[in-house]
Design a protein that fits this description.
The chain is of the alpha+beta class. Among the domains are: 261 residues, Beta-galactosidase, Chain A, domain 5 (Distorted Sandwich), CATH 2.70.98; 105 residues, no CATH class. It contains 16 helices and 45 strands. β2 and β3 form a beta hairpin. The longest helix is centred in the last third of the chain and has 18 residues. It is globular. The chain starts with 35 loop residues before the first strand and ends with a strand.
Length: 845
Amino acid sequence: MGKFERKWMGLLGLAAGTLLALPLSAQAAGAPEGMKEVAGNGQLTLYLNEEDASVAVMDNETGRLWYTNPADADSDEKATAYYKRLLKSQLQVQYYNENVQSALMDSYNDSVANGQFEIELLEDGLTVTYTMGKLTESLLLPNAISEERFLKFTEQMDSSAKRKIDRNYVLVDVVGGLTTTTESYPETYPGYGETNFYVLRGGVKDYLKEELAGYLEEAGYTQEDFEQDQMESGAGDADSTDPWFTIPLTYRLDGDNLVVSIDPEAVAYNEDGFYLVDIDMLPYFGAVDEGDGYIFVPDGSGSLIYLNNGKTTAPSYYAMVYGQDESRRVLSKTQSEVEPSLTVKLPVFGLKADDQAFFAIIEDGAGNADISADIGGRLTSYNNVYAGFSYLQYGPAALSDMVGANSYQLYSQKNFTGIFQVRYSFLTGEEADYSGMAACYRTYLEEQGALSRKAESEELPLYTEYIGAIDRYETFLGVKYKAVEPLTTFAQAEDIAGQLADLGVKNQKMVYTGWMNGGLHGTAATKVKVVGKLEKGGVSVKKLQKDMAAMGVDTFMTVDMQYVYQDKLLDGYSAMQYGAGYFDHSDITVNSYLFADGSMDKKLANLISPYYVGKVTDAVTKAASRYQLNGINLGTASWFLYSDYLENRYTDRQKASMLYEESFAAIQETVQKTLGDNGNAYSFPYVDYMINVPLSSNGYQILDADIPFYQMVLHGYISYAGEAINMADDYRTTLLKSVEGGAGLHYQWIYGDNSLVKETDYDNLYSVHYGSWIDTAAEDYRSVAEVLDGLENQLIVKHEIVSDKLTKTVYEDGSTVYVNFGESPVQCEGVEIAARGFAVRKGSD
């Protein structure tokens, strides 16, 4: 092995049944069978099985045990032999070789089963260091064997074994003529000269290698034969070309939580031709094969996957935390199937079975994390959910212009920010559901200083988002040119605010977009200048702030710190200098796509590298002071997270999220209030309000029910609203979803006629003229306010799906809001709820 010191524990005698996972029944006092106590803190006790490295943690108050792996993996009738062994793993890694062939290894098949692990006990836990790989050292399976000897052994096999051997070895026909796929093998195995030979195919999985070796051994293949084939092939010492990985996994007790981590700096592997890209952590922690419950995933607003839901033909769940990395999609020519506004906003997940549940928080490395979940009945009998982490970022570099259709894969630097860490909490009884998980996460965020309770209640907010100016083509004397078109001047926005006040709207939040740098799709925010045409009517941006403050209206001016739609000279930005870049130095762009087939239409904008967000922040804070802005909308920076892969300023998403946090903090110190847009969790400490919060999930087939988990976390801390109701596909359903989640209402308007946006790049704004909506908005605001007024500073302590058409949301003062999505009226707990309507039973009632 040569590059690290391996310590052998001699742990090959594994006992079936020592890996326990089911947390559903009380356990007898004392250590679980096959385990010994290694740490405790009064609240939790940690146990270890020294033979297989499995771990268990006991909640001392309830006596409940949680285990890293399923108890009866070996008797799982659904799982194949390979998956039975995989169920016993605590880690799984994905890697590539230089031929861009992907492969997997896991901590059981490739480490524990070979005794290749080391245990170090800590004061508050332990570290297990796994060495994965080199499995083929113990297998009598030749990489190359002469045709004569190959046929000698395969003739001794039955037809099934012979077919498998034949499928996994390729003939190198030196005599008859080489093919493009075999022409390199004579150089690799020069010992065969002009003699035909067979070569083991690349990418054969380790479990299959074990099976093939077994067939050869049954045919009489021995250690002497293996050594003879190695010598005859002339390949020399090929040992150094094998992949291996050394990864330390640390468990620590922290109060009533179990904290599990991997330090990426401590990971070692064979970098001579191999690239480690992903590490999955504890894929079967708390996995269950039966019980009444669900997997919770934070898709959009939050969603449930019912245990054993039978959707075995649906793809398993997988999503990147904080959405897809646009920098990884630079070569894609089609639109992503993932709706960007409904991605994973919160780095959490959980599982409930009967009266027990665990809840996990990815508390470090979330920017490079993903969440996977699956149901029982597909590959195994177990339902599971877990986090994975990107170790190296990677992506293809198309070289079609130079070498035909070939593609090469490029990899990021080993430049890590923080560690990979997941915190597990354990819930029991009435707290063991998604409401208890939301409460757990609220408490965690409050203790971390990320959320602060509202001191006082306020009326239901109405968020009105005004579009200031756009660019559109005009003609003069037959010459086409691009001009700035005002859609809503500052004076007109004041007019609408006055009308809303006259209609009884008590708590307006004005969000003003497209007011700077040429309008909605303007130049880079490296310099900030107000659009002069918006100040017609005698109302400047400064006067707008003062007038709205006098009316009691909070004003938030939107700044775009990421997109550059127009790159003009002397604007302080150039794509070459400040744009985010891909591995091959191509620019990262945002594109528009055709509605018909999702294919790319044209480039919309360049992106400013997150590395330079500080430069943009300086310009924004100076503008906030110059224009005396009361509030700022952080815009897409609240949620749109991407990388910059250029070597001189490499910034992965974890580092980018930290840079944005620094930016948000600086802006927060400059203005009175800040507003986020569809914000990811890292934006929470820096915003007072939020719009475009997710009201549903992405609707993947494996999901069973959407829940307002995101809202349950924020309510009572940050006021929020969902998408603009007038722009929603279904106005009434969006209104009902808003009521269900305790959200304010949000409208996106212009003062001018809808015709102003026709035949422009903004024709998606098809229903935005305020005059068509203001009366409806005021009426709906009043009806929703009757239900939600007085609850703005209350926590949501319980949400329940009463039926597929009825939900109820319970606040800490006892008030209960019922929402009926059905077409017929219903009664619940003595309350009548109209069809497609809502009702409230106040806590005082």
